[in-house]
Amino acid sequence: MAESVVRFIVRDLLREGVARGGLSDFKLCMETLTATCSPSLDTMKMQLYFDMNYTSRGEFLKEINWMLECRLNQVSREITDCKVKTKDQFDALYRKIINFILLGSGMGSPSDVSSVQEATVPVVLSEALSVTNEAIENELNVAQSLAWKYTALLEKWHGSPPEEYHVSLAQLTQALYNVRQHEHFLQVLLADSRLCAKRIEILQRDISSQIYLLKTSVQPKTAVPTSKVFPLFKALSKLWSELQDEAELLNIFNNIAFRLQFCLTSQAKIFPKVPLDSLLEGVEVKTDKERMNERSGERVDAAQRKQHEWLQPGTADSLSELPLQYNGFCGYTLVNKDGLILPGNPYIGVLKHKGKMYVFHSEEAGLKFACSPDYFIALVAEKAKSSPELIQLLKLHQTPFHEQEGKTLLVSKSESCTQTEVHPVATDILKSYEWNEWELRRSAIKLADLQTTATKSTQTYLSHMRRENATQTWLPKEVACQSKRDGETGVPKPQVFLAGLRGCGGGRVEKVNLTRSIHE
How confident is the model at residue 3 (pLDDT cuts 50, 70, 90)? Predict the structure, then answer.
């Protein structure tokens, strides 16, 4: 047996039995833990599993988002740390980005090629929603049917069952507690599943409208401003993430409902279907609704309403939504019919005693309970000590009762917090202040001694003519010089003359070069 199961059972047994002797508590714990084929032990295992795996909707969503972040952190780090230079590295980076998108959107496995091509989450989610709700409803119907059958047998065999059937009344009662607890947990899961169904229907409509708006904004245009289209993509991504969260919630609720079936094995072995049907021959099996309809005409009379505070259908808006004690079961029937639990009818009247609401199976049960409510409340707590599964089934662990010296004391529990001061000590306190007279005299003597003392110093050879020097260095300035300006060169103009053309006989012509040298 798991250590958590042992701790849970011992805690529940000792929670209500702390006023009794320690030896009897230890014996009861050992009997419960070592029982074989015990519906009572199965019920407590069921309660432990539900407490450890079920929480509020907000906590479930936080856990889902945390798990998603853990899955994406490693892939995101690989993408951001990747330094690509070649084509193969670009292809690997592209595949990592696709894996990140698939893991974040929940569209499928990154290794599945078809999941990259098309996302079919809304269609698959609608099918899973109908299957999950149908499965939980079927299990709930089976649990309710068994509860009604066990109740009919306990009513018929009130006191002791016939010897020819070889059926233990205690085992039959434990089997009733087992299926009633299973019924309650399934009702909680079914309510959450229906809430998911409403949320999914709203989200699917919003996603369809958002996609239509996105198509109309992008399709007829060749270029769309990012400031116009990015908000649409962000809104669509948010709706998709919420839809993915609802899918994860449905998966969690379905898993919890499936695991609860393993806590029904003992009562199924003790009361198989065929022998159970034979035991019910000649017994009228009534549903909870039929029992309420039989008592629909009963109301607590006006004289009793004056003595005690009763809530009637006309004085309360919705009696079915009130926080009823004992999880809505009749406490008087539990005490007077050897642990038989019957759902109370709030329309008969709801008794308000010390701020708590109590409902009853019949008007007679309500009036007798109202005569001495503290006495019956103590008997219910005593009954829970011998059947520890009732502590969770009747929700007695929320406001446990302890018996001390014959008195019933209500021990209420609540969560509280305290704020620690940032500066518990005032900052304006003068720490040098002294109130002790002898300490003041001691300080005065020290000050008087200072007047008669002198400080002497001696300079050694190593410290002779040594001192700390500092030198300031002037860094050279940056100097710029102006170079000569580029200019043109004056090339001598060529001058060539022909001599002997005029006034000279003989017709001899000479060529004379009169061009000046460039070195002049």
Answer: low
Please name which of 146, 106, 129 lies closest in space to residue 190, comparing C-alpha atoms.
129
Q: State the sign of the Cα–Cα–Cα–Cα dihedral 151, 153, 155, 157.
A: negative
Cβ burial of 39 (10 Å; 0-12, 13-18, 19+) is buried
As given in the structure block, the two tokens for residue 273 are 């279907």
Short-list 15, 1, 43, 25, CA closest to 389: 43
Q: Pick from 274, 261, 326: which is nearest to 149 by CA? A: 274
CA distance 373 to 350: 13
> What residue segments make up the domains of the chain, in order of their start?
38-111+118-279, 288-405
Check: pTM over 0.70? Answer yes or no: no
Task: Give percent of the chain above pLDDT 90.
Answer: 8
What span, in angstroms and rounded, lies between the C-alpha atoms of 386 and 380? 10
3-class secondary structure, 350: strand
Q: Which two tokens stand for residue 202?
A: 């709203």
Give which of 1, 49, 35 is closest to 270, Cα–Cα.
Answer: 35
pLDDT tens digit sequence for 197-218: 889 889 888 888 888 888 888 7
Q: Please give the backbone phi and psi of residue 513, each rounded to the nearest 5 degrees, phi first.
A: -95, 110
Cα angle 118, 120, 121; round to 5: 130
How far, in Å, CA of 419 to CA of 422, rounded?
9
* Alpha-carbon distances of 517 from 366, 386, 494, 497, 499, rounded to whole Å: 143, 138, 10, 16, 21
- Residue 417 or 140, more confident: 140
What's the pLDDT score for residue 21? 45
d(CA 342, CA 148): 10
Q: What token pair was written down for 153?
A: 């047998």
Cβ neighbour number for residue 455 with a 10 Å cutoff: 4
- Take residue 483 and report the two structure tokens written for it: 């170079």
> Tens digit of pLDDT for each residue in 259-285?
998 888 888 887 776 677 777 877 888
201 alpha-carbon distance from chain centroid: 23
Q: 189: pLDDT confidence band, cut at 50, 70 and 90?
A: very high
